[in-house]
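Escalation from tier 1.

The customer reports that the assembly of two entities below gives different structure tokens on two consecutive runs. Tier 1 could not reproduce it. I'm attaching the input and our single run for tier 2 to review.
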Amino acid sequence: MSSTGSTISQLYCPKCGKQFSADEVHQLCDCGSPLLVRYDLERAKKTFTKENIGSREKSLWRYRELLPVKDDENIVSLGEGLTPIIPLKKAGSKAGIPKLLLKDEGIIPTGTFKARGAAVGVSKAKELNIKQLAMPTNGNAGAAWSIYSARAGIRATIIMPEDAPKITRNECAAAGADLYLVKGLISDCGKIVAASIKKNGWYDASTLKEPYRIEGKKTMGLEIAEQLGFTLPDAILYPTGGGVGIIGIHKALKELKELGLVEGELPKLIAVQAKGCAPIVKAFDEGKKESEFYPDSRTVAFGINVPKALGDFLVLDAVYETGGRAVAVSDDEILKALKELAEVEGSFVCPEGAAIYAAAKNLREEGYLKETDRVVLLNTGAGIKYPDTLSIEVPYLSKDAVL
Amino acid sequence: MSSTGSTISQLYCPKCGKQFSADEVHQLCDCGSPLLVRYDLERAKKTFTKENIGSREKSLWRYRELLPVKDDENIVSLGEGLTPIIPLKKAGSKAGIPKLLLKDEGIIPTGTFKARGAAVGVSKAKELNIKQLAMPTNGNAGAAWSIYSARAGIRATIIMPEDAPKITRNECAAAGADLYLVKGLISDCGKIVAASIKKNGWYDASTLKEPYRIEGKKTMGLEIAEQLGFTLPDAILYPTGGGVGIIGIHKALKELKELGLVEGELPKLIAVQAKGCAPIVKAFDEGKKESEFYPDSRTVAFGINVPKALGDFLVLDAVYETGGRAVAVSDDEILKALKELAEVEGSFVCPEGAAIYAAAKNLREEGYLKETDRVVLLNTGAGIKYPDTLSIEVPYLSKDAVL
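Tier 1 run:
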């Protein structure tokens, strides 16, 4: 074994406080809550310094003290992480937020932020000697877990709604996953996965049902801090479906603060949903700590069509604790924002990424975001994965045409 | 002006030797050859050191001394470059090349290596005060130039065959380019572009008709050297259509050698084509310095369907000078290699990237590549841009199914 330097110490339940060994396979807590990973931050302090990190590999594995994988040999990597943060000067000026930034998770293996969760989740599964995992998916997570499982030599059973983005089917199939389609929703797929796991004893890789995906997503927060020179922005907007990203970013920033690497107030964490599927927004507006199932959900931003998230209470915690917000935008606003970002900034984002730009404009208009605020938009995926989102008509030219 | 530190000194013709100012707009040489950029390498030596470069931004702009843009304000960036090099241990062992590496250009804005040429080409166009450019494209180059032109505020007219990958149409349209389709080949598009440029006085951004795209592509060579600790691999395999990448890599490695940053023989540069479109291979097999138009070309790897490249003589130079090869693989080999890389390594590459893996296996089998060789495969784009390359059939499950 060649030690990564991970300071993982245990798993704990954020709801009932129960603790578990991090060297055994655990899924949910006995109380039904997702489990989180705790690190020995006092030990991490010794090596997790700005200087050390800055000179390490250009991937999320540079944050090894705060990641759960203990043995280098178990790291399954395709070079994920350290996605760029680019200034949106023109769009920001238009929106009245000149210091608007975009962290672009389209520039990562599989083209979405799901690669982070899969890289860390699959690596830890390998370390735990898992041979077969299963999960339901709206597309991108299944694609990422298929791809990383292939690299790890782990068998993956993936079940997705037939309406999921077609390219994600190809990714799963190309990687040799056992892929199945269902005429239904991700919740229907989830039931088949649960029953099959129970019958066969497979590892459950469903969102938040294993504790390590969130540790991968967390690295977005670590990177934002590092890339801004270990300062914190005033707000981070995040498209929120299952919410693992916003939970992870919140966890990351708190860990960095405990390590003494960042100072001051945490950025306002803003959960953005679509008006057609806004359970977190409804809970926030009603001052509640958990969300309710959102019936008949529907939005062009397929990745955030999650009517009831297992980690809803952790998302709401993140929002409440940081003085953030939960807001919803319409599909029309999403499509307009998508086109505007591409035309003005050359950023061809996914519909979910367009949603947060639309939300930022709305929040500036109502005065919640200030002109002086430094605001990070987290685009979760590349526009190229969604060829059918924009309907375009292109004129034809004859071979002897001159423009 | 805030100087980038570029040491660009002039443009020169690699065919007739004529020199041109790098502060004026130039397209082809009077003799019809592409022009190349020359740098003041003596001056570059002072700041282009391993230590300096290693601590710079995580993008291709870290190589600023060897890039043509003089003023920071003209840099148009979406965070492109420093794509990962990942080991292909399992595939390499199967192929008898244990030290097989993949440089993955799928992990870059727009999902292909075309982003490099566009980033540097558009930035220099901005510096030269260009307001309108035009080009024919097989898809990905047009997408990249549309996206970067949008960010730069430059108007882009893009003409592509209707058979080009559909997603690239959406990228151009989303970015607000003036996009047109033609029922024909890229050569038909090229004729319309040429006539329209002549009539309107636009900037010609066609492959190798402006000297700066190649400088962007060159950074792949700079990165390979830097990422391997300023050592050189034994061979680099490159999918070759227009050939700008292999020309650029060759130029980069020669510049690094002149700077004293790498030592020893240059890696064998291996141009890989499809059997259905192999003009460079034919020329190589016949010992010629230029290629002939390859009639009725056809291959599943659309990006290398280029029957006659303007820079063919520079590609052949690169191959001859380094003791390299030009080889072709069949579409069947390409599709098999694509599936194999995804299943074995989790690398979902584009068809062009699959072609070089197939070629590496063939070259190992015939003994040209050795078991001890360190071999870099350059995958030019993400598999997710080509949803129709693999035909897959996915079984359906009923909602009450248990696996």
